[in-house]
Amino acid sequence: MAEVILNQVVKTYGSIYAVNHVSLTVADGEFVALVGPSGCGKTTTLNLIAGLIPMSGGDIYIGDKLVNDLDPKDRDIAMVFQNYALYPNKTVFKNLAFPLQMRKLSKDVIDSKVMAAAKVLDITHLLERKPRELSGGQQQRVALGRALVRDPRAFLMDEPLSNLDAKLRVQMRSELKRFHHELNATVVYVTHDQLEAVTMSDKMAVMDGGYLQQYDTPKNVFDHPRNTFVASFVGSPAMSLFPLEIIGAGTSVSLGSPEGWSFPLNELNSRKANASTGKKVILGARHSTITVHKTAHPGAVPGKVYTVEPTGDVTFAQVFVGDSIVVVSVEPQVMLRLDEPVWLEFDQDRMHLFDGQTQLALNPA
Hints:
Number of helices: 9
Strand order of the largest sheet: 6-7-8-3-9-10
Helix content: 25-40%
Structural class: alpha+beta
Order of helices and strands: EEEHEEEHHHEHEHEEHHEEEHEEEEEEE
Low-confidence stretches: none
Mean pLDDT: 90
Strand content: 25-35%
C-alpha cells in the first residue's frame, strides 16, 4: 500500500470550479472518506486520483510517484463502484480472475490470488455462481474481491453501498471496516452519507462547492466543526444553528434575540463572542446538549414544540425558537405536545459559537 497526496488539485469546467485547490494527504494504510452533498466535488476528486478525468492544475502522488500524466492502468489503484460493474455472464471466479488474466499471470498465480481474496471476503462458496444468483451484499463482496486480487497500492471506492437496503448497508459497513483492518489497506472512499464517513473512516474530508471544508478525524470534525456548513452536515440529527446578537462586552456577554429574550454566556463563551468580527453570532447546539424544561427556567430560552418524533429509546422534537428550528431529544417517557411551550437550556461547555459574518468557528479572544 502507499500514501496518496493531493497538492492544490484543481478541476474546472469553463469558469466553474468542480474541485478548488484541494490539498490533503492519505497516509499509508489509512481509510479516508470524502463526504459532502451532491455536487460538492467528492466524486470528481476521486476520478482525478484515478486518472479518469484530466486535472486543470495541481499534483497527485501515489506513493512517491507523480501520477499527473499516467493512465489509470498505470497508477496501480483499484476502483470499486456503486453499481458493482460485474460481468454478468462470468462466474464469480472468472470475475475475480479477469484482471489477473489481463496482466497475463500464470494460472497457478491466478488461482492462488483468487482463492486468497475469496477466503478474506468469505465468498469461497460463491465462486461458481453468476452475479444474478447473488444478493446485493454478495455482489459487493465480489466487486471488492476483484479489486483485492490486483494487490493495488490504493483502493478507490465510489459510494459502494448506496444501492443496498438500510439493513445490508449497516452489515457491509462492518465488513468494509474489517476488510480495511485485516489488509491495512489505503482506502479513499466517497459517500454522501455522513454516518458512513463517521463510522468507517480514520479521517474524513468534508467538501462543499468544490472546496475542502475540513479534514480531520471524525471525532474532531464532530466535536470541533470548523464552520457552520460542517456543523450542520456532520451529525444525525444535524446540529441546530440560529443567529443571535451580542449584548455587552468583556467577560459579561449575553446573547439576545429579536424576540427580546437573552441569556448570559460563561467566561469562555464570552471570550469567543468577543472574537466575532461584528455583533452577530450563530449559536450551534446538538440535541444531546440541550435540556428541555416545561416551565420557565433561569438561563433557558422560550420555544414552542413544532413536531414530535418518537423512535423508541429516545424522542426527538423540533422546537421553534423565534424563526429558527432547534432539534432536541428527551427520554421516551417525557411527553411533548404539538404547540406546547417549552424552555431550552444550552450546555455552555458543549455549545458552539460561529461568526455571524464569516460563519467560521469562534475561538476565545
